[in-house]
Amino acid sequence: MKVLMTAMQPSGGIKTFFRYVYQQPAFNNDYFVLVAPDPDGSLQDFLNTTVAPRKMQVIHTGCAPLEFIKAVRNEMKSGDYDLIHSHGFGAGLLTELASNFIVGPKHLMTAHDVFLPSQFSSIKSRIKKHIMAAVFGKIDAIHTVTQDATRNFQEFFPSIPRSIFYPILHGVDTHYFEAGVPWNIREELSISASIPIIGFFGRFMGQKGFRTLVEAVALLKECNEIDRPLPVVVTFGLGGFIREDYEYLEGLGLGDSFIQMDGTDNMPAMLKAMDMVVMPSRWEACGLLGMEVLAAGVPLISTDCIGLREVVSGSPARIFSPGDVGGLAELITKEIENPTKDVFRKYQPEAVQRFAIERPARTLRGLYHNLSGGL
Length: 375
Fold this sequence. Notes:
The chain is α/β, with parallel strands linked by helices and 375 residues long. Helices cover 43% and strands 15% of the residues.
């Protein structure tokens, strides 16, 4: 099958989706052309390295809507495609507009995010919402990565037929995380055995709730009446607000409690080096990091936000509400006083099976088959 894919912001979760899904055997006989911004060729290099050489060809386009529509439309006219698959809300909307008056294959959109009330709080944005509803309603199929994300989409756009939604719980390479060998991070960073290590692997952006963790550590420091060793938070995330977030925590006198590491190519080793991992997310479409932590058998403290609560449901994860600084501080204290590593190791086989990427990849390929008329 030859698939035309589109993405306006091929980073973060979308790149992870490509890496996890399209290297699976279910897609061995498929070829992809991706229309997306790639000014320096780094996206093409990433796909060649993580998926397969020449399996996914990137056609560079700018992010300006008209430029994007023109690039997609030109490719629709010139290529003989069996399916169109857009990734993200923006790409889905513009790809559908690009297909006007072109007789072509069916259009599948994957929703990689969720909608928030703040997005539609003004008169202008509410008018935009009505236009979005009309365009979304013309898409042949909408793939969501959790049931939570499905309900969110339907709540914001109730006019869209429910029959076109296809929720498929996402997954990760669970065997990779299961088999990882812990990195000796204590020796590397000269952290004594008495000091608990907390891992934060999210991006430095409001969605990931990093400042909730910062304020929870500040509260632990303030309430440390018996002068016990405070935990050290080791961060691996990137993002546009890393400088501001570190300035914020240093302003609270927590400079010695946080260590920023370089990016890692060995996530399982780093996850397993932690005494616990904290996910203070405010919202997710699907909490992939939660899947990775559980598959690695590492204690997880997470919020019950949309898209993450579905992942941690039924697991031994300790749960708090988004933004609840006191609740997070209490759970960190409980994990320090009563470590649950053995509990998470016992749950690990279930997590490995439950979140295995082979399942969603096969299901998505089955959706390709149905939409393309049996290819």
